[in-house]
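Dear support,

Our group has been running a series of protein-ligand predictions, and this particular one with flavin-adenine dinucleotide is the one our PI (initials K.S.) wants archived with full inputs and outputs. We had some confusion internally about which version of the output was final, so please treat the block below as the authoritative record. The input we submitted was:
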Amino acid sequence: MPRAPDASALAALKAAAGQGGWLDSDADVEPYRSDFRRLYRGATPLVLQPADTEGVARVLALCRRERIAVVPCGGNTSYCGGATPDESGAQVVLSLRRLNRVRHVDPADYSMTVESGVTLAAAQAAASAHDRLFPLSLGSEGTAQIGGNLSTNAGGTAVLRYGMMRDLVLGLEVVLADGSVLHGLKSLRKDNTGYDVKSLFIGAEGTLGVITAATLKLFPAAKDSATALVGVATPQAALDLLAHLRAAAGDTLSTFEIMPRFAVELTVRLVAGVADPLGMDAAWYLLVELTSPNPEAGLAAVLAESLGAAVERGLVADALIAASLAQAQAMWKLRESVPEAQRRYGASLKHDVSVPISALPRLIEAGCALVERLVPEGQVIGYGHLGDGNLHFNVSQRPGTDAAAFLARGPALEEAVFDLVEGLGGSISAEHGIGRLKAGELARRADPVELAVMRSIKAALDPDGILNPGKVLAAPR
Ligand SMILES: Cc1cc2nc3c(=O)[nH]c(=O)nc-3n(C[C@H](O)[C@H](O)[C@H](O)COP(=O)(O)OP(=O)(O)OC[C@H]3O[C@@H](n4cnc5c(N)ncnc54)[C@H](O)[C@@H]3O)c2cc1C
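Confirmed final output from the archive:
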């Protein structure tokens, strides 16, 4: 069991982290005490921020020897409290912020090696500077780091075409709980040499090791694109349109996002600079994008033709294809501002869930009925990555209702939503992870054999339980 560090252990940790490698003043530590959503507020005596892999290794070796719990922290944008220390004041935070070098971009290999503290936006820019694409894209990309993206197996808006973070990794460098370094920065597409060890650390949320660098897959840069906002009457019509567009546009279809009318209205009203570029009356809005590395792909014509055919089939109520980059950017701003609009609107209950794509209409219909029955103060804002079967089934508090009463209904609603999702063959965490928020639910709902395998892996890699205790795997009762 980890224990609280004493003064000499803290001094040794500072020395291990090296010059400029630690923060302990109240003001400096403050941002690390709470999570992005302000669900948790913890305490820590020390934030370590070594500048390189060797520094991380020294820190972890010491933590292992002294049995000190460590909470790895990237951009601290986790939606599940994954990077926040607990309230004991005994856990130290290990920030990867200073491991921020792009080590190597190899356009011929379509790969690049970056350190874990490089932000996602900086990684995208590094690829772009070599006429390559790193396709992961999230609303938090300016702040979230590659190490955090890997550790949460992040998704975002291009999963339909490129997959989640796990699909974009060729190799990892990881410091294990005892301070040893796993040197796995291979750029191979094929490597069948036993167990896929790197995969263990992806989505592990800092509970099995600390990722210090990654070799990532790159793709040809997009040279042609076509973006549209499309209005449809029902989620089923949206699904039918997805199948129609996949047939017409093939792999060029890279984004297929859904927003209810209420989310669009709220975003236009509450987020500065968001205009309603559609000016039309639809129950559901879709952001659709095709991209291709071929500048002659003629994607605007492909999109216009296939949407025209969809209108004729009665799938689409109305559609606007962006006539300029600025118009396309305005459409993206609308979609990406939905979480911010919801935050400004007031208290909310959030569920990041996934189901088989075909079950999405059922999830939306049955989920709305649950909210009507269980949360009279609530308004559903179910939006997200329809092409991946991933809905952010969120509920906002209606204006003028009591916030405390609204929030008090959260646990009952969550239970019912998770039951619904499970009944549909879905997942209680599509892309945000487990963190502290869903550790109890995972313990309750996961297949017992799968959970036992997870606990065995944890015990093998972190026998003293010093790595991010309480996250992903709740302490057994
Ligand atoms: C506005 C907004 C939009 C978002 N949109 C999306 C979205 O579309 N899709 C999506 O999947 N997520 C989304 N997220 C959630 C979040 O941004 C992502 O999960 C992101 O990948 C987290 O990265 P981070 O660097 O902030 O990680 P942190 O929050 O710092 O950490 C996340 C977890 O990873 C661990 N960790 C961090 N770095 C390391 C490391 N180097 N080694 C080992 N463990 C580590 C932490 O201990 C923690 O458990 C969004 C968040 C915000 C605020």
